[in-house]
Structure formats: C-alpha cells, structure tokens
Design goal:
3 helices; single chain; 85 residues; three-stranded antiparallel β-sheet; alpha+beta; two-stranded parallel ribbon
C-alpha cells in the first residue's frame, strides 16, 4: 500500500535488492521494474558467485546517494556493480 501511495502521489520508490534467487526466479520481475520511471535501485552486485550463484545484494552504503538521486528523478550508475573474479 505504501508503494501504491508513493506512485499515486508521483514520488519515487527506492528498492534495495537482497535475494538468493535474483538471477533465477526474480530476474524477470527485477528487469520489469527497471523499466518503470518511479522505481530506482540501490546499486547491487552478485553476493557470492561460487556459493550462491543466483544471489544479488545491494550496496547498502549507497542508500543515501540513491535516495537523493531518486528525489531528483535520476538513477545512479552503474546499477550492477561488477566484481572481478
């Protein structure tokens, strides 16, 4: 209900991903939300590519920067943080 209210009032919705199945069952839904204007993502990375190959987690230290950018109507980049192997 809070998200519906934000969208109805033309306010941004900031999402922080932390899921074990992001690259499996949730990938389609995450991708769909990335295409809608009111949704902004805290940049995220693969959690542990060896032990949890489908897991993603956001960089929680970037929450304040993401919120400020969302209030200005922009997404901070890159959304996907690449980790060298």
């Amino acid at each position: 209900m809070a998200v519906k209210s934000h969208i109805r009032n033309n306010r941004p919705v900031v999402l922080c991903i932390a899921t074990n199945d992001a690259l499996a069952g949730s990938a389609k839904n995450i991708g769909a939300l990335m295409n809608y204007k009111p949704y902004y993502f805290v940049p995220f990375k693969q959690d542990d590519y060896e032990q949890k190959p489908t897991s993603l987690v956001c960089d929680f230290s970037l929450v304040p920067e993401t919120v400020n950018a969302a209030l200005e109507g922009r997404q901070i980049e890159p959304i996907l943080i690449l980790i060298p192997h």
